[in-house]
Specification:
It contains 6 helices and 2 strands, in the order αααααββα. The chain has helices at 3-8, 11-16, 21-33, 35-53, 63-110, 124-153; strands spanning 115-116, 119-120.
């Protein structure tokens, strides 16, 4: 790219006052010597002055306050989701530990035999299968109940 083309690409920026003083001086000097660039600089100057006369948009009253309130509300919602996730994780760990403790206690009390429908529930596999199924159902009901409560809270 030669000097003419480089200067020509800066004409719009020069007309809008977006160039550094040194670059603006170079463009003006070139425009004094080049009639085509001088005409283009005048056209861009007309556009820049016309744009400067257009009405400026006004910021709606309360926009900043509404934006800040929305950001705070979204942060609070994210914190609630994190808290809920930690709570459900903690409850899952507690449920597993409680289940293990009850299995150990019932096994000690019954002497290791608790038959239901012909299956000894004191064996680890049936006990944890049945109790996990019951815990899953209970957790699902709790999750649905809590989510419905959360939806009603913001309506």
């Amino acid at each position: 790219m030669n000097e003419h083309e480089a200067t020509r690409s800066k004409l719009a920026l020069a007309a809008s006052g977006a160039l550094s003083p040194e670059e603006a001086r170079q463009v003006e000097q070139h425009a004094r010597e080049c009639a085509d660039c001088r005409r283009q600089l005048e056209v861009w100057g007309t556009y820049a002055r016309g744009l400067g006369q257009l009405p400026q948009p006004q910021i709606p009253i309360g926009l900043v306050a509404r934006t800040q309130a929305r950001i705070l509300r979204e942060r609070a919602d994210a914190a609630d989701r994190r808290r809920s996730g930690l709570m459900f994780g903690g409850l899952a760990v507690f449920s597993w530990a409680f289940n293990f403790a009850v299995w150990f206690l019932v096994r000690a009390v019954t002497g290791g035999v608790l038959e239901v429908f012909g299956a000894n529930l004191m064996n680890a596999t049936p006990w944890f299968l049945v109790s996990s199924m019951l815990a899953g159902i209970t957790g699902a009901v709790a999750a649905v109940t809590l989510s419905r409560y959360g939806q009603r809270r913001f309506i």
